UniProtKB/TrEMBL annotation:
Keyword NAD tagged: yes
Organism: Rhodopirellula sallentina SM41
Gene coding for it: hisD
GO cellular component: cytosol
Cofactor: Zn(2+)
Annotated positions binding Zn(2+): 285, 288, 386, 445
Record's cofactor remark: Binds 1 zinc ion per subunit.
Transmembrane segments: none
Keywords: Amino-acid biosynthesis, Histidine biosynthesis, Metal-binding, NAD, Oxidoreductase, Zinc
Name of the protein: Histidinol dehydrogenase
Coiled-coil ranges from the UniProt annotation: none
């Protein structure tokens, strides 16, 4: 059993006798079912499609049209949904625009981009899979090899803010993998494909393909290919509900990184944690709006202190109204019995981000199986991972980290085996192969081996 108090800012839950149900409720609220749409979105859907479609129906229609009509449908939806009138020739950002954005960028900004690129490169290079070859018996050579994908597409958001960090966190791992071609799509907005910081980052990384399109239509174009935007092998990067649903729709035609939902964090904290730090970490996640921000602690005094800090710090934020809404809708301050229960609840929720602010974070993370990315200690805010540490900030959400991994250099490598037997080794293993093949009734399989062993 749990007891719950809801105020105008964030709910408090006494979960010392339970707690799983409150996290299950939050998980359900965060689940992108694809059947909800804002009033503005509903109006736009009615205007564009002439009837009230669900987001799933919208995405299915767009993907079907782009697959069958190609560039014409891509441009039509770009105009009707994004209010941008483009042609096949103006869809791609010209090389001179990338160059000029880079030339006009602040030197300090480019210095940061270069340092972050080096951090990402260093980490991704260290974890990159390498070919493994064994010779278990004379005449047998077995290899597992890793080959980079030829061409990948990256979705960069551009609705409410510009995201040069997304370019870094997706493109650099692909480059470390050895991907030949990288295509970036961003909505035709001041925060998207017309944002000079984003374009300057692309140029700094050597990315020459940037397209002025976003949403489901851009995902469909990259998956199916068209005259103006050749098809890719894999689509990665974040986006809104329509982008997520489109990636799910085209999976199978191409690979995708994940079916991403709202961002989320669980902060596990004890009496050694700074209430100001904890509040700042919760607000940083709620700022995504929607974004889930949950504190789990066994120190009751910390909850009161954090609530006060939330009120104080909220007043200083530019997006305070949106952040407050996210705290109210998707946030919680949860009191548990002890560290063991905190870890059990965290494992059941399987958060995208986990921040452990305790006296011994190594002890807690050792008992937690499920988190997309973990941040340990009082001085390791999640924002370090979002922007500069080295691991990619593209992570599994919605509890999917129970089976999914975050984006990395290895996401862009295709694994395959290479087998080689000489004549003697084939003869040595032939009886086993023939015996099993004949048991399965696959006599041609058996014959393809036995014919090589006949005198």
């Amino acid at each position: 059993m749990t007891s719950e108090t809801v105020d105008s800012l964030i709910r408090f839950v006494d979960a010392r006798q339970g707690g799983l149900e409150i996290l299950a409720e939050l998980r359900e609220k965060l689940s992108p079912r694809g059947d909800l749409v804002s009033p503005r979105g509903r109006e736009l859907t009615q205007a564009v499609f002439g009837k009230p479609l669900t987001p799933v129906e919208v995405v299915e229609t767009i993907c079907r049209d782009v697959q069958s009509e190609g560039t014409a449908a891509l441009l039509r939806y770009t105009e009707s949904l994004d209010r941008a009138s483009l042609t096949a020739e103006t869809l791609r950002v010209p090389a001179e625009d990338l160059q000029s954005a880079h030339a006009e960028a602040a030197p300090e900004f480019l210095d940061s981009v270069r340092r972050i690129r080096e951090n990402i490169t260093q980490f991704q290079s260290a974890i990159r899979h390498e070919d493994v070859t064994i010779t278990p018996r004379p005449g047998v050579r077995l290899t597992q090899r890793y080959v980079p994908m030829r061409r990948v597409g990256i979705c960069v958001p551009g609705g409410a803010a510009a995201y040069p960090s997304t370019v870094l966190m997706t493109a650099v791992p692909a480059q470390v993998a050895g991907v030949d071609e990288i295509a970036v799509v961003a909505p035709p907005t001041p925060f998207g494909a017309y944002n000079k910081d984003m374009l300057a980052t692309c140029h700094e990384l050597g990315i020459t393909e940037v397209y002025r399109c976003g949403g489901a239509q851009a995902v469909a174009a990259m998956a199916f290919g068209c005259d103006a935007l050749p098809a890719v092998d894999k689509i990665v990067g974040p986006g809104n509900l329509f982008v997520a649903l489109a990636k799910k729709q085209v999976f199978g035609t191409v690979d995708i990184d994940s079916f991403a939902g709202p961002s989320e964090v669980i902060v596990i904290a004890d009496a050694t944690a700074s209430p100001a730090y904890v509040a700042a970490d919760l607000l940083a996640q709620a700022e995504h709006s929607p974004g889930s921000a949950i504190l789990i602690t066994w120190d009751e005094a910390l909850i009161d202190s954090v609530r006060g800090e939330l009120q104080t710090q909220l007043a200083q934020l530019e997006r305070s109204d949106l952040t407050r809404d996210a705290l109210s809708d998707f946030g919680a301050l949860i009191l548990v019995r002890d560290a063991e229960q905190a870890c059990e609840l965290t494992d059941s929720f399987a958060p995208e981000h986990l921040h452990i602010e305790t006296s011994d974070p190594d002890a807690q993370i050792a008992t937690i199986r499920n988190s997309g990315a973990a941040f340990l200690g009082h001085h390791t805010p999640v924002a370090l991972g979002d922007y500069a540490a080295g691991p990619s900030h593209v992570l599994p959400t919605g509890g999917t980290c129970k089976w999914a991994a975050g984006l990395s250099v290895n996401s862009f490598l295709r694994s395959g085996s290479v087998t080689m037997f000489d004549e003697g080794a084939t003869k040595a293993i032939a009886d086993d192969v023939v015996r099993i093949a004949e048991k399965e009734g696959l006599t041609a399989h058996a014959r393809s081996v036995s014919i090589r062993t006949e005198a």
